[in-house]
Amino acid sequence: EIVLTQSPGTLSLSPGERATLSCRASQSVSSSYLAWYQQKPGQAPRLLIYGASSRATGIPDRFSGSGSGTDFTLTISRLEPEDFAVYYCQQYGSSPPALTFGGGTKVEIK
Amino acid sequence: EVQLVESGGGLVQPGRSLRLSCAASGFTFDDYAMHWVRQAPGKGLEWVSGISWNSGSIGYADSVKGRFTISRDNAKNSLYLQMNSLRAEDTALYYCAKGDFGDYWGQGTLVTVSS
To answer: How would residue A109 be classed by pLDDT, with cut points 50, 70 and 90?
Structure first.
């Protein structure tokens, strides 16, 4: 069973700053099966990145994903006020269909 | 427009059962795997169960294995979760999510297990 560990737990930054979020897997994960989500209070999660680095439809290009093997990163190049939220990484498999989530990183306003 | 609408949540006593439904529209339902994911109050996301497009492959989290059953009716564009022997720790907002990695999610239905 793959465990995803996200760090830091909380990131305190100001609008305009760069955010770097980490997701480390307990064993190697295919890049094709790594995704990132954003969740705001009272809302369902929204897909940001799939396949480790592909932006989902409508996601601004300030969001980027990178990494391979056991280390993956979500970068927000310049934080906008609407980007303050919780971010989750996720690994997925299809046989059987299964999802594994990291514990989340909260990006808060400093 | 993809829409996923969950229903069936509510307040239930420990040990009782509940059946959740997810009505899908805006995409070809039987082309995609589907998942149930839950979120306890103030906590992170926990995958519950997933089902392949043709119900031929099904997975469960260890925490619900033997108690919950996922199913789908492609003719009705619907996903279900039968939850038996409910426990207090099953209290959560339950989301259905579309596709191998959940590219669209519903708004969730709240399940509260309490006496």
So the answer is: very high
Biggest CA–CA distance in chain B, Å, is 40
- Counting as low any pLDDT under 70, the low residues of chain B are none
Residue to substitute from B27, B45, B60, interface A, most A β-carbons within 10 A:
B45
Other C-beta atoms within 10 Å of B102: how many? 29
Residue of chain A whose Cα is closest to the Cα of B93: A44
Distance from CA of B109 to the nearest CA of A (A): 11
Phi, psi of A16 (to 5 degrees): 95, -20
Beta-bridge mates of residue A59: none
Encode pLDDT of A24-34 as tens digits: 999 999 878 99
Residues of A in contact with B52 (CB under 8 A): 94, 96-97
Q: Classify B110 as helix, strand or coil.
A: strand
